[in-house]
Write a structure and sequence with these properties.
Layout (H helix, E strand, L loop, with lengths): L2 H17 L2 H18 L5 H6 L20
Helix pairs in contact: 1-2
Length: 70
């Protein structure tokens, strides 16, 4: 495979991993590790996995209930 293609894929996969749920994130980071191995570089997946993810918050249920009037 072309090195540029692999680098682009790694960047796309990392971007997806940052927004993914924990299970999917681990799978995506494993894929990044395989691409990094093909490129001959160190695996940066472990560094990404050590970085904390932002906490996802959902609005309180009370926002969605009610008569719909403001």
């Amino acid at each position: 495979m072309d090195e540029d293609f692999c680098r682009e894929q790694v960047e796309r996969i990392r971007a997806l991993a940052e927004r993914a749920d924990p299970f999917t994130r681990r799978r995506l980071l494993a894929l990044v590790g395989r691409y990094d191995a093909k490129l001959g570089g160190p695996s940066r997946a472990s560094r990404l996995s050590e970085r904390p993810l932002p906490v996802r918050t959902t609005p309180p249920a009370s926002i969605f209930s009610g008569s719909g009037e403001a």
